Amino acid sequence: MIEFLSGKLLIASPYLNDPNFMRSVVLIVSHDEEGAFGLSLNRPTDQHLSDVVELSMPKGAVRDDDLIFEGGPVDGPLLALHDLCGVGSPIGVETAGIWLTGDEDHLRLLLTRVDAKVRFIAQYSGWGPGQLDREMKCGGWLVGNGDHDVVFADPEQVWESAVKRCGHEVLATLSPGLRFDNPSVN
Fold it and tell me: Is 57 exposed, middle or buried (0-12, 13-18, 19+ CB in 10 A)?
């Protein structure tokens, strides 16, 4: 039986040699019989938000220096992953408090909200029916919980952090009560 991964993280395994996904962490937005749609979280570009939405920037925008992230190899619209409750659509059950929008009015609102965690993303990752399942069976991806701390983490550290967290989750299921607060205790 296929496990659908909406709201989970795909963490590129060290064996995945596709240059589009090497050391990537992808938040799966939706996954069903028709395929999967996700956004890479750790591929910042050198393009600033002000370069992309220059003409429609609200006055006094505070996020115009935010970098645009490359969400994957497929062309797509500008999207925003964020934690501003009720703006856009929630992502999965596991990712409580993470929302996605591409609506222009929502994007303008997010430009001015310094109190929100926001990651602006162009492009996306997509898999056809059964494609992601085959990649999973070949060992291309690890699966982790898509939580706020990983989604909005420093992009330079998100892959290593997600791999460690995934390992801790596996060990915790094998040995309930095992804790990782203090490495000298383990």
Answer: middle
